[in-house]
Amino acid sequence: MLDQTGEKRQHVDEDGWWTVHRGDIPIVGTAIHDGHGLRADLRSLVALSDDQRLREEDPYTAYIIQDLANRIIVHRSRFEVDLNRARDGAVYVDPSQAWGLSVWRDALPRGLHERSLVLHDEYYRMLRSMLLSIERRHGGFIVLDVHSYNHRRDGPDATPSDPAGAPEINIGTHSMDRSRWADVLETLLNALRRFEFRGRRFDVRENVAFQGRGEQTRFIHEHFPQTGCAIAIEFKKFFMDEWTGEPDFEVLEALRALTASTVPGLVKALDARQ
Fold it and tell me: Residue 192 is part of a domain; what is its CATH number?
């Protein structure tokens, strides 16, 4: 695995929960599934290999948002606790919650289950506090909730998913009051669609592969209904080999530049609403 500078990682942060960067703009980027770390008391209980876990995590999403002044990067694996699930489903206990994978060798002891949920509770306390601060400073904010998704689930040599149902960039807006935030959403979509890479533009569509039904966007829209716009962005894993984990840094650099390029327009859109 590589860090945000492209250098080989020497270790995974097993103790840190997340890293928060704070700047003076109303745009926030999050990479809540970027992490691969596991608590020490869980490692021997996990039935999955590191490669199996990595395949369902969102590596390099922290890299994509690293030029945003406000960003949250989670270091713990979604297989410890999934911060984008509601609390009662945030720890995978059944294969139906985890792409058919049996995560644990045996039933997870209740005490360890509850310990994992502490991270879920503390994350949302931290997130609400941070967003309240940005709201006080700027009057409103936009959260770019960045994820990635697999499109070669049948194997490394199998035919990838039909592009008709798998855009390179999928925007999810399920929990959003779309009429209230239409101007912000259109600003983002236009910026993403204008960007050129290798002589073409990316395939950007709304609510195709995913609809943005995650807990983080729901939480933000519940707690900040008038001032917070949270947009789920799913990048298809065309920037890496999802089976080996090998990145294509030319594509990643383009996605990094693309994400940074949306900020001026989004700030302007927010300012126009004041």
Answer: 3.40.630.40
